[in-house]
Amino acid sequence: MTPMIDVIFLLLIFFICTADFNPPEKLLPAELPPQGASAAAEVILPEPLNLDTVRIRISFDQKPAWHIEDRVCTSSGEVQGLLQKIAAMKPDIPVILESEDRVPSEHVIDVYDICRRTGLVNIQFAAD
């Protein structure tokens, strides 16, 4: 009986030492309204557009400003309209979100939610 307890004790120690106690990574929770619930501003996209990646830079000076490639958007409706046009052309395009240090995180998450709402799923955050 004693050797059996020793074996069980050793197995218990082995499993505790090899266990991974970090929670698995999951998708960011996002509460999105149903399709078509928010009105997006109509954005006309110039024809020559590089569709390898979409780089969205977020700046903040009293209010947020979004720079999608070389276009400046002043409202989230403009951003959504432009991203809808891009998603209609190429839904699997990589989107890279860059933000300045002073940008509140809520504005970055808002852009992330807009990307998900428009159907863009390959979203990456730029590291400084």
Q: Can you describe this structure in just a few lines?
A:
The protein is of the alpha/beta class and 128 residues long.
Question: Per DSSP, what share of the residues sits in E-state strands of 2 or more residues?
Answer: 15-25%
Write down the overall geometry. elongated
Major sheet size, sense and barrel closure: 5 strands, mixed
C-alpha termini separation: 59 Å
Structure description:
By secondary structure, the protein is an alpha/beta fold. The protein has a domain at 55-128: Nucleotidyltransferase, domain 5 (2-Layer Sandwich), CATH 3.30.420. Helix content is 35%, strand content 20%. It has three helices and five strands; from the N terminus they run H-E-E-E-H-E-H-E. The protein has helices at residues 2-18, 76-89, 105-118; strands at 54-61, 63-68, 71-73, 95-99, 123-125. Strands 3-2-1-4-5 form a five-stranded mixed beta sheet, covered by helices on one side. The longest helix is centred in the first third of the chain and has 17 residues, at 2-18. The N and C termini lie far apart (59 Å).
